[in-house]
Amino acid sequence: MRTKSQIKKSLYDKDVYLSEFKTRTQKNWAVIIMPDNIIIDDYHKKEVHIHYDSHRHYLSEKITMTDRCEVFEKVMNHIEDNKGLDIDKLITELKK
Cβ(63)–Cβ(78) under 8 Å? Predict the structure, then answer.
């Protein structure tokens, strides 16, 4: 059995989703920034990472933040502070 929950917030023409997926044996989450299709998740690699290029999803970079709620709030604060998305700056912030 698979369950999914999702929260959505919008700011400066960006929709930010916090999604959580659960199965019997696994629990994963993702923060997704649309329409840029930037994904921060803990799938596949067992570590939190950001997919920063929507055209080359296989490219990712490890980040140090691991709590999904903290990542979601950091993304929302970043968008508010910068009045949009600066992907290089966001990656730096997520690595602190």
Answer: no
